[in-house]
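A common beginner's mistake is to predict each chain separately and then try to dock the pieces by hand. The better habit, illustrated here, is to supply every component at once so that their relative placement is modeled jointly.
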Amino acid sequence: MAIKVIYNGSPDVKTFKDVLSTMIPKLLDEDPDVIYLDADLMSCIGTAKYAKAHPDRAINCGIAESNMAGIAAGLAAVGFKPICHTFGPFASRRCYDQMYMSGGYAKNDITMIGSDPGICATMNGGTHMPFEDVALYRAMPGSTIVDVTDTAQFNDIFPKLVNRKGIKYLRVNRKANDLVYGEGSEFEIGKGVVLKDGKDITIIAAGYMVGSALKAAEVLKGKGIDAAVIDMFTIKPLDEELVLKFAKQTGAVLVTENHNKIGGLYSAVSECLVANCPVPAGCVAVEDEFGEVGPIDYLAERFGLTPEHIVSEAEKIVARK
Amino acid sequence: MRGKDKIMNNADKYAIKHFAAEIRITLLEELKARGFGHVGGSLSVCDALAVLYGKVMNYKPNDPKWPDRDKIVCSKGHAGPALYATLALKGFFSMEELKTLNRPATNLPSHCDKNKTPGIDCTTGSLGQGTSQAVGMALGDKLKGRKNRVFLFVGDGEIDEGQVWEAAMFTAAKKVNNLVWLIDDNKKQLDGPTAEILPTFDLRAKFEAFGFDAVRVKGNDVDALYDALTKQATDKPIAIIMDNVKGSGVKAVEETAANHSMTVDAATWDSYIAQVKADLEALEKGKEIA
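With all components supplied together, the output reads:
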């Protein structure tokens, strides 16, 4: 089945926790080489019950993310396809050197799930709010980074990631993002999805920001700006072909991401544009600052990640054309 | 029948000591060809390598990726040159290749790389990381139903790294008893004696407290090493604390304060080699090594 877009502004009917709790056991049951490690956060993604019944397939490493990453590397070295999970900051900052050397450098393939990216960390606050995880993993040679949009996309992409070579970093909210895709939609890692065509500006978004980008595009339409919207769920490798096609078509680009504007999707798109098609561009992303605690609506406002911020920035970029 | 005999007979013991001297000579020739290298921590694992590759481990030099092989993880990755010397002597690659150590495009980098060197089972270098990888390898082998073991070398300076203790805790807690830890307690780290930089306190007691069956043996006592390495593990994994001397086997290196990495001229390397050769001759004549 091709990609079916069913966006209507409402939240996903399922949470990511729902699909993590079913998809991880499903992959473990289907493929004896898949093995799952967690760092004392199984209960947070609904896998604890499965782990209790299958202690050889789902291994709780305790609160030791570096060790978990290293064990995953060792398991990969002897023939397993390890999936690791912990919260985003611990899946990136806390075990970066282990993922880099024991994982990437040593060619031990690992899928690392970093849950609650950026402002999705809400009530866990600034200590748990990764705005730099994509920047870290982007700098790791050969890595793949996915910031997943909704549960239908997750269901299709997740097995593909687990079976892919290299270090795979998956950013995933535990709650629901906006519903965008119909169940059964099929995606290709490294290929962005055109959610809306347009001629005046291209909004490139990923993960939590995709819904906000679509909302902004509707508002912009009312202001006479015809914005294209691309779901760039694969941040690395970037779909440069699609970026350049739309940069040429619309002559302006806005990137929005639930991440610091340093080193993430905006950086990736900017690097591509500077070298190949320097059009007016800008971003709606977190500035050079740390996170803080609060409900997600507060945090989206606080860090400038609302549809209104996208509208305002898009108008400025279009004015520079 | 490697690893099956309970004790070594005199012929075995002679062969192991002979092999250890050969490893040292080959290692020193390898470092001499480049003029510098991590000599101290390489020399201190030579006796254990001789026991492992001489009589304990199951491996196939012509099939280095054989899944059921016993595996070695040198978490103190800078001791790679000692492993390379051992592997070359056992026919994993040519002796000639040893001359490429640390040369551009070499298969023998300063720190162990499993994707470059036949017989190297784990990529190490960022200290502490070999421990968790060894745990994963041993756990994975066990889950795959393999009967092999994994042998892990950890430096006494390296245990400053917190990851080592995370891995130790997991090894005992999850009963990963097909993994044997060898702590090279050679008393020195790069900046000086461990007693000054960050004292280790009682390593045997620490590993026992972590749930290991821990023993302390002289790092050059091949009988004691053999006994410890062939002991059947219970649910408790085995940790062998090797009471060692950094640079062991070459008096002049042992007596050099800063012997982590040394740059000396060819004549000095030759003098080190001459000492080991003299010890080897003495061994061959049936005399005791001093």
